[in-house]
Amino acid sequence: MLLKVLGCGEAFNAGARLHTSFLLEWDGFRMLLDCGPSVLVGLRRHGIDPMTVDAVVLSHLHGDHFGGLPFLDRFYHAFGRSRPLPVWGPPLLRERLDLALAAFFPGSSARSYELELHSYARSFSVGGLPCLALPVDHDELTHPHGLRIGPLGFSGDTRWTPALEELADGAAVFLCECGVAVPGRPKHCSLEELRLHRQRLRCERLFLTHLGQDVLDLLPLSDFEVLEDGMEIQIF
Q1: Please, are residues 113 and 84 in contact by the beta-carbon 8 Å criterion?
Q2: What is the pTM of this model?
Q3: Which of 2, 79, 157, 225 has its CA 20 to 30 A from that of 191?
Q4: Three-state DSSP state, 139
């Protein structure tokens, strides 16, 4: 599995980072993990044809994590995608996507392809890999989940919660959000908390992502690896 960091920024693009979107590749299969509004920029910067994406999995329904899906959908229709695109996400995915499409591209409901929307259960499968979705502690209206995609764990957006321990346990790579330096910004992990709980995250490698400006101001960190837009990480 190869992880390509299309974007690892937070909602307001601190540090000029693109919104959160990761591309996972294994056995000839390509999957987007989250789909921020800048996803097409991220794909093009890597020289990746957006048409080659095979599936999408979304952690939650905040705009900086799923707001690229309407643009991806309209791109596929405009340029004639013919094969289906399966998308897994939390409850209300279909309703929120319909609202976003109606706002961004009114009257554009036709598709050249089939968009397959699935609400994931705790356990599901994508591209032959077992996946796990666990509720985490973020804005409840966005139905936030942390995800495990085979050997990769991802916190999604959340403040510290014991679910992170299960998502990280045995992972080759765990991506953990770190939205603030100290606790205070609601429903986001802080660098202070992650330092306190680091030994409880039993993964081989831990990368911080979704960094707020106060965390960026502290870089480089001596005790954590930090994602950057454009990075590529070999997982297995």
Answers
A1: yes
A2: 0.96
A3: 2
A4: coil
